[in-house]
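Appendix B. One record, verbatim.
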Amino acid sequence: MVTIRAVLAAALVFAGGWSARADGLGERIRTARPVAIAVDPARSASLEATIRWDGDLAWVSLRNAGTEPVAVREVVLFDLAHGLAADTPFYGEGLQMLAQTAGTLAAPVDVGTYPDRSHYRLPEPEGFRRVYSLLTLEPRGAMQELVAFTTCRRFIGAFDVSATRLRATIDGEGIAIEPGETWSLENLMLARGPSRGDLLAELAREIAKVHPRTPWPSPPTGWCSWYCFGPRVTATDVLDNLAAMRASFPDLEFVQVDDGYQPTMGDWLETGPGFGGRPIGEILREIRAGGREPAIWVAPFVASPDSRLLRERPELFIAGDDGTPLPSDRVMFGGWRLGPWSAIDGSDPAAQAWLAELFATMRREWGVRYFKLDATFWGLMHGGKRHDPKATRVEAFRRGMEAIRRGAGADAYLLGCNQPMWPSLGLIDGSRSSLDIGREWSSVSSTGRENLLRGWQNGTLWWNDPDAVVLTGLPESEVRFHATLIHATGGAVLSGDDLSRLPEGRAPTLRMLSRPTGVAARFDDLGLEVGRIPLGNGTARYALLNWSGDARSVKVTFDRAVKARDVWSGNDLGTRSGETTFGPIAPHDAMLIEVAPAD
């Protein structure tokens, strides 16, 4: 048996003071001089990049001091030797939802299975691993470091790491800055401290100041058709699950019809053959009449080669050199089904009008106010020609998303899926935080890490969507691990099982999960083994996760006497205080412990 000590009083862990090397890194970043690089390097001299620091926050700008327009390749905010050990653990965000990076500076590891650099064919400097928008470092025996962009209004910010160096850049995309013009680029933040969770909570608060959202009241709950029926979903499947929800799951609100109802990508108002000739709008209205809220899957920025939309409105799409819609497989991933897709040009007012009317129709005629927006990364697709040559990729994407919001309504729930992460800030109400779940341990564990690494975003930037809960096809221990982890995200809960056939023994777990706390567990490090979920009035839950193939006991330190119980079994675990042991926890298993003040 292996014993893990999880000390929650994080200041005690680092009571030896700050590392001189880590402290020096922050100082070198603050004193670095940014360098702007033109597409034609010989014209870089007229570009003046400036960083203005105020405490831990920085504002970045670029001015063209010359007399001619200059096409900007990138702005390098800093490029320096970081002075950290090569085995320093780190974490970096992806530009798109399916990519995250962890490991160490010398040996990066892809957390997601669809990396930016390979699957989406985004450029990466030789000798570096590129991550986007957020970088955390965990020097051993020293304070943790965070450097991140707190805005994404126009430009994409990235960090390049290696065993010896650290760079930060902003992509100029070859757009020309006019003589005398000044661009406000993206804001930067530096922070350091003993707890990963505390640093990320501070970052979330700073981001929300610039990209505020009107919060949806609570994380949504419901059922999703994809994980039991896939693209072969039928009207009968949907209505059978509606009946099961009404009979047994009163807290599941939304019935989400996923990919498969439409005949092809792009023709979202039409219905495919699987619905027996019944229009999708009719099914959605029946869901509402049955006492539940209808929800619909849409991939608004893409169209398949055989779509009516692409055939009749080719001018709405990002164009290739020949002026016709550019198939996305020429520059990046072509799409997972019915591809290669072409991408809607969000910079085009006509495309914005089409998007707004599409969602207004679904809201007005179908009564939908929950929209799962998949494949939205195609709205940020690199390459090709857009209607507005001065618009950055971020601006084009955000204009398209703003049009969707106008059509769907200010009170609609927009869920981003396979989305660009930072470019979506302030535009969506929910954010998928992992790849699709599968019914095997490799998927439960890998998507679990993806979700927990983004837990800090939940409730401040948006509600996280950890993907569907699957309670069938897994052994009991892995069901308990999966359920504990989903609860620990604090986010949305949508069942992915066929509820009309769900074993009765799994129903209590789903009923408990269908009342999410809205509060994500906070983890102190990248081990993600002990997470604390504060519930108020001194009550908290602890998610104790055993990722390994060995039985493990976990030690948690309480600073006062608490009464403890096992949430899943209901067993009373007695009064605990100080350092206390829970377990042993079986391989690929978990405990969910609730504690309350003993006095």
